[in-house]
Amino acid sequence: MIEAKGLVKRYGKYTAVDNASLTLEKGEIVALLGANGSGKSTLLGMLAMVLKPDEGEVIVDGLKGKPAKSKIAYVPQDIVLFEELTVLENLYSWSSLKGKENIERAEYLINELEMTDFKRKRVDRLSGGQRRRVNLAVALMGKYDYLLLDEPLAGIDAHGGECIEHLLRAEKEKGCSMIVTEHNPTVLLPLTDRFLRIEGGHFIG
Ligand SMILES: Nc1ncnc2c1ncn2[C@@H]1O[C@H](COP(=O)(O)OP(=O)(O)OP(=O)(O)O)[C@@H](O)[C@H]1O
Ligand SMILES: [Mg+2]
Q1: What is the pLDDT of residue 9?
Q2: Whole-model pTM above 0.85?
Q3: Cβ < 6 A, ligand 1 pocket
């Protein structure tokens, strides 16, 4: 379970996330919805422990800090990849898996996300939607119990959306819990257990 208590993030005088608390149960998928600038990425960054809150705390299965962070895989909204490396090289570079498991996981993700045709291409030669798929795949090259995805469908075509839905369904069936931010929840609607709406850094509704 992820428990976030009283998270606050301020940028100067502006409060981007204001006293947000939430609980993510084991195996649950929560969609985090909100307009541009409402605080979704700021909140997700704090939950993933890549962004330090000004107030509040995040507890994962009763743990804090590094041991808690190691249970979480995070897919950032901004694509972060090694641009001069190929797709495969990126998967291996970001991976925390070893040997056979590493190779099999990369193969699985390449198949699921239909990246076979461009797996040996350099990332800086890929299209926007192809880069988005690689950005998702690198985050999944490890062991984790929680998956935090910031707009994984941005720039993805309809068929790519179906591939991602299939992949995330399999993760859910393994017991993985998720929070997904998105603007158009229709693609992942069948997977979603609960919706959270954020406006001006506050949960609403
Ligand atoms: N590094 C920063 N410095 C200053 N202000 C920031 C910073 N990051 C975010 N903000 C502000 O915090 C607010 C929330 O931003 P955030 O990125 O969390 O929104 P979002 O809901 O993810 O939006 P989008 O749908 O566009 O991705 C915005 O008003 C933004 O301008
Ligand atoms: Mg965002």
Answers
A1: 98
A2: yes
A3: 11, 16, 34, 36-42, 77
Domains and CATH numbers, the chain: 2-204 (3.40.50.300)
pLDDT at 14 over 80: yes
Q: What's the gap in Å between 116 CA and the centre of ligand 2?
A: 29
Q: Given the CA of residue 77, which atom of ligand 1 is nearest to it?
A: 27
Of all protein residues, whose CA lies closest to atom 12 belonging to ligand 1? Answer: 16
Do the beta carbons of residue 178 and residue 29 sit within 8 Å?
Answer: yes
The C-alpha atoms of residue 86 and residue 49 are separated, in whole angstroms, by: 28
Residue of 42, 78, 202 best suited for mutating to test ligand 1, as the one with most atoms within 8 Å of CB:
42
Tell how far the Cα of 200 is from the centroid of ligand 1, in angstroms.
Answer: 10
Quick: pLDDT tens for 140-174. Answer: 999 999 999 999 999 999 999 999 999 999 999 99
How far is 165 from 45, CA to CA, in rounded Å?
22
**Distance (Å, whole) CA 122 – CA 180:** 28
Query: Which residue is it, tokens 């998105």?
Result: 182
Number of H helices, E strands in the chain: 6, 9
What CA–CA distance (Å, rounded) separates 28 from 12? Answer: 34
Q: What is the mean pLDDT of residues 94-108?
A: 94
Q: Which atom of ligand 1 lies nearest, measured to the CA of 183?
A: 25
